[in-house]
Write the structure tokens for this entry.
Amino acid sequence: MFKTYAELESFVKSKKIEAIDFKYTDLFGRMRHLTMPASRLNEDFIKNGEAFDGSNQMGFKTVESGDMSLIPDITSAIVDPFWEIPTLSMLCSIHEADTKKHFRRDPRGIALGAYEYMKKTGIADLSLWGPEFEFYIFDSMNYSNEINSTSYRIESTEADWRGSLEDVNSGHKIPHHGGYHAAPPQDDLCNDRTAMVKVIEDSGIAVRYHHHEVGGPGQSEIEIALQPLQKVGDVATWVKYIIKMVAKSRGRTATFMPKPLYNEAGNGMHFHQMLFKDGKPLFYDKNGYAGLSELAMYYVGGILKHGPSLLALTNPSTNSYKRLIPGFEAPVNLFFSLANRSAAIRVPKYATNPNEKRIEFRPPDGTCNMYLAVAAQLMAGLDGIKNKIDPRKEGFGPIDKNVFALSKDELSKIKSLPTSLKEAMQALKADHDYLLEGDVFNEDILDTIVNWKMEKEYNEVRNRPHPYEMRLYYDL
């Protein structure tokens, strides 16, 4: 929003801004924030930032060495529409409190490091990204986890199960798996999504469209315009924040959880991506398969070869693998194809213009840390280009068939994605050298992620009795 401190200061005074909110992302993708009165704003503060205790943030520092600094990026400043007093929000990078060096575990810094590495390789100077935001909007969500009980209950006015629960029922319910492009009055969320899009666009982020998704009880999608790598993490952070806050302001709740509902469509976050150099699109060749260049093929090869380990960063939750199951359009096999939604990498058929030619990596979901997910995918693609990993020779396709209709023998020849968070973490431990190139990631960052995910998430979920187990085993 601002290029200089003078512009920032003038805006704060003219708009009578009363608070400055510093937003940042922890290692596991959660937004955090720190707020100060606007009266504290000065040029030195913007340069050196505000100290905070990093030992209380997941994945950052230990108690004995917890001091860090939040240094705001004034170009990211947006007037926050959800605060009661005039508040200017800015995204921040995390730095060492004493030396002001970029903190190695700062996700925003890792994404910028991947961008700088890409430029140093000489392969490309621009990487464009387009995440698709799939999410559910519910009317209520209640859950409990106690020693003697566990439960959750979700309600949605759109759900067909509501028919028997309502005294006055309009009958305009969306059937199971029947929500794709549903129209009002079945689509009860069109005004909510339109309100979200208005705030997103008012924040300077271009939106391509929004619509109801397949999941009947409230699944929605908002797709934004392609963004440069160095900005897409910031943009996604704002978009997710806006979606959640608009839903809350309208008496509803939004979630990017991959599989909040049993036997209903799950939420993915497909990543469209493409490379340019000196203004020239690098993924296009009119004579190539699906219009892809040889360089694009190698990029695809890198992502698919490293696919299992990539999922540790693009699908980093136990719930992720309840979405990645056959029969729900979520990809479970490592292959690429033109326009095939069962492929891990889909080449959009409608993108025929050289400047639009791109690939879409479909397994990821919204529980990922956006900065780390984008950085890791880029590093895998660049590794494919550097080492000329040809997906056709590696057995990754192309497969232009409905993979769920293939015979068992045909399916057995296709490599599979991990089926659990544990498998993904094991894959990351076995295959991560490509992430260490250019010092973008390091062993410490990856070990921290693996250890936390296994100890605090995978094992904690595994060790708890499940309600369905009571039905299966209680009377034995």
